[in-house]
Amino acid sequence: METDLDEIELDLFIEAMRRRHGYDLGQYARASLKRRVQGLVRQHGLDHIGALTARVLRDTAFLPQVVEGLSVPVSEMFRDPFVFSALRTQVFPTLASYPSINIWQAGCAHGEEVYSLAILLEEAGLYERCQIYATDFSDAALARAREGIFPAREARAASLRYQQAGGGMTLADYYHARYDLVKLDAALRRNVVFANHNLATDGVFCEAHLILCRNVLIYFNNALQNRALALFADSLVRGGFLCLGTKENLSTAPVAGNFAAVDRAARIFRAMRPT
Ligand SMILES: C[S@@+](CC[C@H](N)C(=O)[O-])C[C@H]1O[C@@H](n2cnc3c(N)ncnc32)[C@H](O)[C@@H]1O
Fold this sequence. Notes:
By secondary structure, this protein is α/β, with parallel strands linked by helices. The protein has nine helices and ten strands. Helix 1 (about 1-20) packs parallel to helix 3 (about 50-60).
């Protein structure tokens, strides 16, 4: 009976987020969504999901905190360094043939991935030609990403991954340390636009030569994964690249036939024909 009540309350919360705020959470993997909603209930000292729903309905200023709590902005600079190495060796040479390069990084969390990419593009001499759109559905995450400030211990741990990714300097060359924080050079975001974009409800974003969307689809059910992948197929130029997370794939998606694998382990695919 208790479980049923939780499930009903979760449905009502999802409905409130959709009707009141236009956030479609109905296609998120249910178990992990439920855990995060229950985490919000505890974090805000509420008794049950119903109380959270009431606040979501009545208190519009509360929304950013709710989205932040649902968003799982867990990331790290140069996460899976072999993927960045593969981008450098298998994707950058093609990008170098374009006079201007559009990159869409969907689900940018606190910016760890976009700053990592910017560093490698800079070192490859490509950054000046790049326009990078870093998007997320959480305004709180985007605000953090714009600041480019990270705990110093994270930066130290990222140094090794940067080397493994084929970085040519030392990571410390790109930031200033202050107490237990580091601030990344503002120059790294001179060609980055941070913007709110929701993969569940928004449309095509740009004509991209490279799209990175790593560790986001894992939170979606199949239908929403397929929606996002169709959006990426529509947003890529012919010959454009798509990079997913190492636990994500597109083999069962309706758009799978539009892509060829470039590096299966690194989950890098190439759009072979227009959709
Ligand atoms: C685990 S982080 C991944 C960060 C980074 N891409 C990485 O691989 O390290 C997932 C991010 O996806 C974002 N996200 C979740 N649902 C989204 C949606 N519907 N549209 C856009 N971003 C979403 C979250 O806010 C979060 O920042």
